[in-house]
Amino acid sequence: MVKIQNVRGTYDLYGPAKRKAKKVVELASKTVEKYGFEEIETPIFEFTEVFARNLGDTSDIVTKEMYTFEDRGGESLTLRPEGTAGVVRSFISEGMQQNLPLKFYYTGPMFRYERPQKGRQRQFTQFGIEMLGVQTPQADIEAIAMAYSFLRTLGLENSIVVEINSLGDKESRDAYRQKLVAYLKQHINELSFESKERLEKNPLRVLDSKEECDKIVVANAPLYADSLNESSKKFFDEVLKGLDLLDIPYRINNRLVRGLDYYSHTVFELITDKLGAQGTVLAGGRYDGLVAEMGGGDVAGIGWACGVERLSMLLDQDVELPRPVAVIEVGDDVHETALKLAYELRNAGYRVEHAYSGNLKKRMMKANKANAYAALILGSDELAQGNVTYKNLDTGDQKQISLTKVQEELK
Ligand code: ATP
Ligand code: MG
């Protein structure tokens, strides 16, 4: 028989790991909802062009990481490697241009063909936000503030730093690109093969390279900050002023770029020292050129996305479930009453643990294992008088109460 197993780089999420992942998403949703963001769900696959032109043909995602396949109708489809492209596609195809600004969040699986290792999976979960139609620095400040507040609710404020940079407007980026290309050409023989290619197609990507030889060249490359024009400087200053005002600690990282043409102004990453090489847990930036590039007109955009599994790994403590109450039946003739009591309590909003088999001792053990705070013990003698035994499982105290008073007692 064929051995049945999961695909490399994919994981089954259950038990404590799933609880943590769920908590990460819950806290993120709660935080961004306070800023007026609403959830959007776009399909897990799209026409390949949605990602291929969106992400630029030279990005790692497009050149080596996409899960692309032909469906039975002969269409080329791709499992989404990230969330922004789908949201912008939806914005355009649903004709949402009349309702700006728009604030969306999303969560769900993303797919990238990468070399699996700790914190790097082929199917992973992202939570992300996109804000469309806001040109002012307030959007950048809010986006970063939300990200930081969210990580604070996870208890990570002491192990997280915001790294930030500005790519400026188009004029500044063009000026920078010229300087960069001139510099890289002087060092062309020291660059990796891939970076030589990038130099032609998308030189900014060289700054992103993980190759040692490229890093050495990049270390002395011209700085973005020196190419920003006055209005771009002013924009960046306002963003930083906002972060200062809100007491959000940041570090300017002149080497931080997003190598795609449609990025502008603010780019940022939230980084932890707790995850080794996979330390970036959240990344984002302003993408004022993207909507236009996809044919949706001149609409500003900014967004970020975080890796839910990477963040879950940072949660030291197990996520506790709310404690149930246990219904414990002793003897066959009380089964129907127990069934009904459990049903009614659940309808009234209680979590109820009602074991499927076993004697009193076994059932008490199960109640303790489920971390129940109280047990309602139903024996035939008490039931004959309309009573049950209520036992506080933390103190061990117990007393007889009327079956009709159970909910009162539990409150
Ligand atoms: P990296 O440099 O680690 O490859 P990236 O630039 O490809 O990251 P983004 O596309 O910005 O990452 O995605 C945002 C976040 O999603 C990352 O910061 C990370 O937390 C998470 N992420 C990205 N790729 C993976 C993956 N293969 N497995 C798990 N999480 C991932
Ligand atoms: Mg990557």
Give an account of the 3D structure:
This protein has helices spanning 15-33, 48-52, 60-65, 84-93, 137-153, 170-186, 193-201, 212-218, 230-245, 290-293, 308-313, 335-347, 360-369, 380-384, 406-410, and strands spanning 38-39, 45-47, 67-70, 76-79, 102-111, 123-132, 160-166, 250-252, 264-272, 280-286, 301-307, 325-330, 352-354, 374-379, 387-392, 398-402. The strands form three sheets. An eight-stranded mixed sheet has the order 1-5-6-11-10-9-7-8. It is built from 15 helices and 16 strands. β12, α12 and β13 (352-354) form a beta-alpha-beta unit. Helices cover 36% and strands 22% of the residues. The protein is elongated. The mean pLDDT is 93. The structure holds adenosine-5'-triphosphate (ATP) and magnesium ion. The site of adenosine-5'-triphosphate has 18 residues, from β6, β10, β11 and α11.
Ligand roster: adenosine-5'-triphosphate, magnesium ion
- Describe the strand arrangement of the main beta sheet, using strand numbers: 1-5-6-11-10-9-7-8
Strand percent estimate: 15-25%
Name the helicity range: 25-40%
Largest sheet features = 8 strands, mixed
End-to-end distance = 55 Å
What is this entry, summarized?
This protein has about 400 residues and is of the alpha+beta class.
Give the SSE layout:
Layout (H helix, E strand, L loop, with lengths): L14 H19 L4 E2 L5 E3 H5 L7 H6 L1 E4 L5 E4 L4 H10 L8 E10 L11 E10 L4 H17 L6 E7 L3 H17 L6 H9 L10 H7 L11 H16 L4 E3 L11 E9 L7 E7 L3 H4 L7 E7 H6 L11 E6 L4 H13 L4 E3 L5 H10 L4 E6 H5 L2 E6 L5 E5 L3 H5 L1
Parallel strand pairs: 1-5, 7-8, 12-13, 12-14
Antiparallel strand pairs: 2-4, 3-4, 5-6, 6-11, 7-9, 9-10, 10-11, 14-15, 15-16
Adenosine-5'-triphosphate (ATP) binds next to strand 6, strand 10, strand 11 and helix 11.
